[in-house]
Every structure is written in structure tokens, then in C-alpha cells.
Design goal:
α6 (132-142) packs across α7. With 183 residues, this protein is α+β, with helices and mostly antiparallel strands. The longest helix is centred in the middle third of the chain and has 15 residues, at 112-126. The protein is built from eight helices and seven strands, in the order βαββααβααβαααββ. The two termini are 28 Å apart. The model has no long low-confidence stretch (mean pLDDT 91). The protein has a four-stranded antiparallel β-sheet. It has a three-stranded antiparallel β-sheet with strand order 5-7-6. The chain folds into two domains: 4-98, GIY-YIG endonuclease (3-Layer(aba) Sandwich), CATH 3.40.1440.10; 112-177. β2 and β3 form a beta hairpin. It is elongated and about 60 Å long.
């Protein structure tokens, strides 16, 4: 896959120069609890003009991350080296996978529709039928229990018909099917 470099946040100033001109995504976390997923066309610029400057940041820094840095929270950073043309797509995939607390866009934690999009993507990628119960368990474990089964079941209820945009549903049998047939 992609090369990853993980460092404690306080070590970033000592190593960030080695990532000058390197693009990719970064994950800010505390012992595997993901707070934020971001993308950078140049890690060096992103961190020297943003995260390492705190309140004096030139570029955008999530307010929640600023607070955690100021409080001295035991943050670590995972730098994932990705070609520039793929960082946006990979960022969305990572947000949907890790459900970081401070990302709002594309995050299943923030919207039922985000969960439904993820369900549709799983059904499409697997090209097989899923029961509601099987999907609930799969998503619960995929997200490390960060989203409760009640929230996932709410997405599967398909009250607004949005889930049907992403996969075929047979509500009476509680089954999901791929929208397109295998070729």
C-alpha cells in the first residue's frame, strides 16, 4: 500500500524537514483514537505553517486540534505518503473508515446519509447480498465500536429512501443487494 511514518506530535519539529515536498494524508490520534484526518500537498508546509504554529497558524487548523495541542494531549501523527492526485480520494476513504471525531465532511459519525453511502460502497465492492444484521456487525467492527448499532440500524431503516440510492434494498427481508449486476 502506501508508506507510513508515525511519530509523537512533539517529535514533528525534529523530523518534518525530511517530508519537504512530500504529499499525502495525516492522521492525528491518541493511542489509536482518531481525532482528525487531513491531506497535504506538502507535509512540511502544512505543519510549519499550521499545526506547529498553534494560534499563530497561517493556514487552517481545526479548532479542536488546536485545543488538544495547547493542552499538551498525548498526540501522535501518522504521515501516509500518497501521490498528490490521490490524496483527496484517500482522505475520504480514511474519514469513512476511522470516523475521526473532529472531521465533519464525509464522516459517518455526523450523518445517517454518510452511513448509507458507506453501506452502499461495501455492497457494491463486495458484489454480494448482505443481511441487515450482517451489515450492522460489519460496520460496528469496522468502526471499532465508535458508532453504536442503533445508529447503523437507523441508517438501514431507510426512512427517507436515501439508502436505495446506494444499493437495492428488500426491507421486508432485511436484505441489501448490489445496484448493478455482475458482468
Amino acid at each position: 500500500m502506501y508508506k507510513e511514518i508515525e511519530v509523537r506530535f512533539e517529535e514533528v519539529p525534529n523530523m518534518i524537514k525530511s517530508l519537504k515536498g512530500v504529499s499525502g494524508n495525516y492522521y492525528l490520534h491518541t493511542k489509536g483514537h482518531y481525532w482528525y484526518v487531513g491531506k497535504a500537498e506538502c507535509f512540511y508546509t502544512r505543519f510549519t505553517q499550521g499545526y506547529l504554529k498553534g494560534r499563530d497558524a497561517i493556514s487552517y487548523v481545526n479548532e479542536g486540534i488546536k485545543q488538544r495541542i495547547e493542552m499538551g494531549l498525548d498526540l501522535s501523527v501518522i504521515f501516509v505518503l500518497i501521490p498528490k492526485e490521490l490524496i483527496g480520494i484517500e482522505e475520504v476513504i480514511a474519514i469513512r473508515k476511522y470516523c475521526p471525531w473532529l472531521n465533519t465532511n464525509f464522516n459517518p459519525r455526523n450523518s445517517i446519509r454518510g452511513i448509507q453511502r458507506q453501506i452502499g460502497q461495501i455492497v457494491k465492492d463486495s458484489q454480494r447480498q448482505w443481511s441487515y444484521e450482517e451489515m450492522t456487525k460489519h460496520l460496528f467492527y469496522l468502526w471499532g465500536g465508535q458508532l453504536g448499532t442503533n445508529r447503523i440500524e437507523q441508517a438501514l431503516m431507510n426512512k427517507n429512501g436515501d439508502l436505495s440510492r446506494y444499493s437495492k434494498t428488500v426491507a421486508s427481508q432485511k436484505i441489501l443487494k448490489p445496484n448493478n449486476k455482475l458482468s
